[in-house]
Amino acid sequence: MTANPPKPQAASSLRTGLRIINAVLERETSGRTGYNVARLAQEMGIDPSKASRMTQELCDREFLERREDSTLRVAAGFHELARALNHGLLRGSRPVLRRLAIEHGSGARLSVRDGVLVRLLRAEAAAATEPWPVRVGLVTPCWCTGAGRALLLDHSGEEIAELLRDYELIGVGGPNAAHSAAEVAAANDRDRPGGMIAAHGEFEHGVTEYAVPVRDGQGRIFAALAVLGRHTDLGPREEAIRADLTASASSLGRLIEDTTD
Description:
Elements: H1 8-29, H2 37-44, H3 48-60, E1 64-66, E2 72-74, H4 76-85, H5 87-104, E3 107-114, E4 117-125, E5 139-141, H6 146-151, H7 157-163, H8 181-191, E6 197-200, E7 207-215, E8 221-230, H9 231-234, H10 238-260
Antiparallel strand pairs: 1-2, 3-4, 3-8, 4-5, 6-7, 7-8
Helix pairs in contact: 1-3, 2-3, 5-10
């Protein structure tokens, strides 16, 4: 027995819903101000009442959410679905993260960016405790974590400034955290030639996080791979960690290609 094909009206609504999610996501990842419903309808060339109805349904299903300023962003339901669809990457990342954790006596993490936040997809640890609490879905700021800065490594100073325009950076993070978008951009300019973010005390005192971007087949940053632990333990191993993270990120990038072919 074969499944019944979707009715034309349902299929059309599904396509429109996917287009809306894609438009909101592209706008969000570009670093520009998000769409409100009226602007979204205008940009997509669809009836405002239809856009309002469909965005509300997507919000009800937790694929989208409205910010306080009425602009739209992708929500937890979308990210959960994306994780499920990219199960090959998550499954393949586990041995990579476990090996990194054991090899360097650290925590090892795979994360993605969710607006100005970094969302943890998978983590492994060499010991029972880590310097930061760990749970899948954990969110941290992009501007004061190694993974966050790695996810912004291709952003220009202007793009970082636009992304962080409405956020107060002072009072968040560790003693070496950036206090402005310009400081975030300068830190990335410093680390970019070496291909690895070195975040010393940026989120928590005494903790170092080394991170590299994971790129897809088109060279776009898709995720960040990181190890973190006490600076006294990881600092002397920086070059070995750089080589290991770079090679591991390349292997994960190939998994992305395999799951999207």
